[in-house]
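Handout for the seminar on molecular recognition.
Each group receives one record of this type.
Step one: identify the two inputs.
Step two: read the structure output and locate the region that could contact zinc ion.
Step three: write two sentences on what you found, then compare them with the reference statements printed after the record.
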Amino acid sequence: MSLEDLYKEIILEHYSKPRNRGDLPGADVSIDLKNPTCGDEITLKLDFDQDRVADVRFQGKGCSISQASASMMTESIKGRSREQVLDVLRRVQGMMRGEISAEEADLGDLEALAGVRQFPVRIKCAMLAWEALSKGLDPSRAPGESPGSEADR
Ligand code: ZN
């Protein structure tokens, strides 16, 4: 199996069996993002336990890459500290910008997203969930410091 086929298989597997898909009532952070280029949508909900991502869920619709990427993202951050999550985020961003290779990024299944780099339009699809995550980690949205994520849309 070629690397490209392996990447496709990982993405399709996450698309058909998304992890952490659903609502998370009362979540500390809720982010809505759209990718107008492709029509992808995502709602990302994060629950923090002090500095740790205690729980995460996403809902959305769109192309297989956007939804698979969201599933892979949630799987990679659940239970991790804010610092660890930021580290994964930076490596994914670097890999998708072509600043580092998939091997250098050392991200396991997430390296499958690198297969999208050859289709520039698709990079936005792959990065939608990660942009939502980036916004969700913004300290200004930290639990206890904002009156509720529903209010600031
Ligand atoms: Zn898309």
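Reference statements: Strands lie at 29-35, 40-49, 52-61. Helices lie at 3-16, 64-77, 82-96, 102-105, 120-136.
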